[in-house]
Queue: 2 jobs
Job 1
Amino acid sequence: MRQLSTLSALALALAIAAPAAFAQPAPAAPANADPVVASVNGIQIHMSDIQADAQNLPPQAQQLPPQQLLPLLVNQEVDRKALLIAARKENLASNPDVAARMKAAADVQLENAYVQQAVAAQVTDTAVQAEYDRDYAGKPGPEQVDARQILVPTQAQAEAIIAQLNKGANFAQLAVKDSIDPGAKNGGELGWFSKDEMVPAFADAAFALRKGEYTKTPVHTQFGWHVILNEGHRTAPTPAFADVQDQIRQKLTDQVVQDTLNKVRAQVKIQIFGPDGKPLPQTAPAASTGN
């Protein structure tokens, strides 16, 4: 248990810190550029093993310098090799449950590799740029509203706030005093947002207002009761490529994954059975969302 606890603690440490220096694959180099950094019962651990481990760390974890991370990764590999040697001595691979889990893990890796191969081939920098040129470049952004809100737990509280506004009370001051929204300290300021960035009831009310108007009746959502002040309408500027490239890449990735699933399902015979063992009606696969 102490060994497993050590591995867990190390995994947690690596999950919050990793250096950029280990995040890139090593360039082609002579054979001696991949030195042995440790051995366990003669099983060699190479620098390339450490680099592979580092590449699997979270992208956001880029804080520890290499001289601190290297010993951690080396020790992690040593622990893994020691555990593997112990497991093989006990012939655990012959245990039916263990063998089944090993096969399942190998199958998952193969499935993932197939999808990743399709994504790598199709979701390229060129494809992302082409998508941006088609859907964003030279086109105006969505309609947006600049608004403030006062969020309270009950309808009665919201109605009381509207009554104060009707008498000339300052919206921002009431937000600071009464709103339970995190933006209350800024006078309820929400900034510019498009309709799809808010829950429907809130968005419909905010976009229906003219500049300077506030809702005369409270707006109810799952978050509570809202009083909304519209501070302006605009058409958003065209987003820069750098601001949307990750979003575009994710959209293309989702499309490729769905297309890949549709393709492989079409190549096999599928029969689904109900709890009673009877065949269920065939259903068509989900359609791709690509354009």
Job 2
Amino acid sequence: MDNFVKQKIELAAAFRWTARLNMHESVVNHFSVCAKNDSSKFLVNPGGMHFSLLKASDLICIDTNDIKKSTKHLHEDKKPLETALDLHSSIHRKINNAKCILHVHSKYATIVSTLKKGKNSKWPGCIPPIDQNTMRFYKRVAEYNSYGGIAKGAEAKRITKKIGDKNILLLANHGVVVIGSTIAKAFYDLYYFEKACETYVKALTTGYDLKILPHKVAEKTARQMENYKPSNIADLYFKSLLKILDKEDSDYKE
């Protein structure tokens, strides 16, 4: 299969599974992947289309060198959102390993993004190490704590600068951005980050003090997760999702 076609099919699958997991919001979130490993061109979803309906053929190829030309032939309700164009073009250009970018306002990550951080908070970081999933992300999440409106123009550029060497960026009062060298890896991190945030939020609702594990244990566990065998577990997980879609929802490939 041609790599470009493969990317479109896999990205369409990521949209479908995000909808199944209810991690999307209305028709305003957006995913992208570099087209043919060229960071100046990327595939992105049209604005106004629900993730559960999206097909490979719906994806739009954007040339960051001439965004207007890439979209001028499209009807207004089929064009990518301005925020998608600004944010994804900025990240693809500046972050080397951002071959795939997933941005959602998923329920639990967004709740965590609203929690106050700092010296006077119960936990100064993103999510505390209270179980294996939260420890997976111990000190491995960047945070953008200066919400300045929707991710357009200068705001998109400021967000990009905050990613640094991390694969996950929590956007204060907004949501999350996950990047990866492949669609499978980015989706795997998105899935587990939302699970980790869910555990944290639900633990808080008990009203009891959290049993936060020490740095040594949390860092050890995070490293073990990074070196987990088989090393291609993200690919294996994503391939399983593709097989399920092939049986239950196969028009995503069209």
